[in-house]
Amino acid sequence: MRADVFTLFPQWFEWFRSQRHVQNALALGHTVDAFDFRTATPLKWGQVDDTPFGGGAGMVLRVDTMEAALRERYGEDPVALKSHRRVIALTPAGRLLDDALASELAAEEEITLLCGRYEGFDERILEHFVSDQVSIGRYVLAGGELAAMVVLDTMLRKLPGVLGDDESAVEESFSEALEGAPEYPHYTRPAEWRGWAVPDVLLSGHHARVDEWRRAQSRLRAERPLP
Ligand code: 6GU
């Protein structure tokens, strides 16, 4: 997976890249690169945004500077780019990120993430340069950077070898293996603490019964969400 992020704050991604599981992904040959779209702007003083036509609060990312940034990186018209590469705008009103979308994106060879700031993107960016609009929830962040990291995190951890134990990304909350249900409860030593005992079945060494108990717990949690 080669992931490019376009942002006004590329330094935020230095922290992300330094995390253990991301380091694992990079060591396996995956890439996460952040590009400052301010460096490509043809406008004076690094301008990338402007006031909205029709008036109103905030600033809007300009279509011409976005085109310049994408052209500089990919050497082609961004209208053509999106036909062979997922170009994803992070926007609060986009398609809600879930486990299925994370798996879909993790299967891509190359993706581009565009982080908006301020009031967001000029609509022509979304219409002509972007293949997907993704949101991480129905609330508004100050910018798309944290959302981009959430998207990257959920994709990268699905790549083989990125987590210590590949099984841990298979049978987990909302996965196909658990039919989209939340994960079952986990316990570890001590087997009893202050009178709080671990369910007997988990200590039984009986794998089929453990499995059966876990599926049942997972289904229960799907019916009755945690408080
Ligand atoms: Cl993707 N961007 C912003 N700015 N806010 C959000 C979001 C994205 N998803 C939820 N809130």
Provide the CATH top-level class of the largest domain.
Answer: Alpha Beta
Count the DSSP helices.
9
Instruction: Name the beta content range.
Output: 15-25%
The helix/strand order is: EHHEEEHHEHEEHEHEEHH
CATH architecture of the largest domain: 3-Layer(aba) Sandwich
* Poorly predicted runs of 5 or more residues: none
Number of distinct beta strands? 10
Describe the strand arrangement of the main beta sheet, using strand numbers.
2-1-6-5-8
Explain what you see.
The protein has helices at residues 12-17, 20-27, 63-74, 78-81, 99-106, 123-128, 145-156, 200-203, 207-223, and strands spanning 2-7, 31-36, 49-50, 60-61, 86-96, 110-115, 120-121, 132-135, 192-193, 196-197. The protein has 227 residues and is an alpha/beta fold. The chain folds into two domains: 2-156, 3-Layer(aba) Sandwich (Alpha/beta knot); 171-223, Trp Operon Repressor, Chain A (Orthogonal Bundle), CATH 1.10.1270. Helix 5 packs across helix 7. The longest helix is centred in the C-terminal third of the chain and has 17 residues, at 207-223. The two termini are 37 Å apart.
Describe, in short, the structure shown.
The protein has 227 residues and is α/β, with parallel strands linked by helices. It has helices at 12-17, 20-27, 63-74, 78-81, 99-106, 123-128, 145-156, 200-203, 207-223, and strands spanning 2-7, 31-36, 49-50, 60-61, 86-96, 110-115, 120-121, 132-135, 192-193, 196-197.
